[in-house]
Amino acid sequence: MPLEWPAETVLPSEEVEPWFQAQSNWVLDFHGDPLRAKLVVFSDGNHHMALCDVLKAYVAGHPEVRDIFYATTPPAPIVKILRRGAIRLGNLTISLRPHIFLSPPHVLDRLRAEGMLRAHQLLARNRGSVLLIARGNPKKIESVGDLMRDEVRLFISNPETETVSYEGYRRTLEEVAGRQGLDSAAFNRAVFGETAVYGQRIHHREAPEALSDGRADAAIVYFHLALRYTRIFPGLFDFLPLGGTREIPQPCAGNRIGKIHMGIVGDGGPYGRSFVEFMLSRAAADIYAGHGLCHVQDIPTSGL
Hints:
CATH superfamily of the largest domain: Periplasmic binding protein-like II
CATH architecture of the largest domain: 3-Layer(aba) Sandwich
Strand content: 15-25%
Number of helices: 9
Distance between the termini: 43 Å
CATH topology of the largest domain: D-Maltodextrin-Binding Protein, domain 2
Structural class: alpha/beta
Strand order of the largest sheet: 1-3-2-6-13-7-14
Helix content: 25-40%
Order of helices and strands: EEHEHEEEHEEEHHEHEHEEHHE
């Protein structure tokens, strides 16, 4: 059975009639009403839980926006939508252009070079990666070395459709394993060989699904994603930190930390600039911190 994900909409979901069929048209990473919304935000998806709460807070203070339509896919799809001006979801085509774009800095560098946006700035960074496991840890996984065991299958994002996360996750595992004295060639064969389970397009949904379905025994995901899964599916998942503790993650050497940047597309429309100001506010910082991310307000100048 598929996981029952909670609604992630800016306006109360009870206002409209829901319709979905899990094998046909269940869409999780496009949110809101594109006709009603006066602000459109495109974002990489891994911090979707924090973004949703910030958007709700923004609309509460700016009800004239009516709604916010936002996308939370990996960078590649939303970049294509920005360039082409439309997305097709099954048989439904939606034409739209974002006012705000959030993504890793190198993605926004490319968009700036293409003239899509003038500049971008740091919004937040993650707290490294962890190993997501099933509740109760049935395979007794205690470290990255246990991923080498024949009976342990690792889920990792797709190297072609989610290049950014895949490369970060793989390098994290390789570097942590190396610092633990594990042979790199043997580690790569055992962990990324025939037993590996690769996502298709959206690992922040697929990783917990793979564990829930029994197709994988562990997944490497960002700390804030694992925190989210344990909160909304408390009976299903747990995670092992790669440095620090579950409560206070302190990424160990080799555990890579990624950054989230934000830029205005074109003139940003009537609300783009005020939204950026809100995203940089103390209120937004507290929301991001509550979801396990480090907002720019909380990053020391030396860490920028």
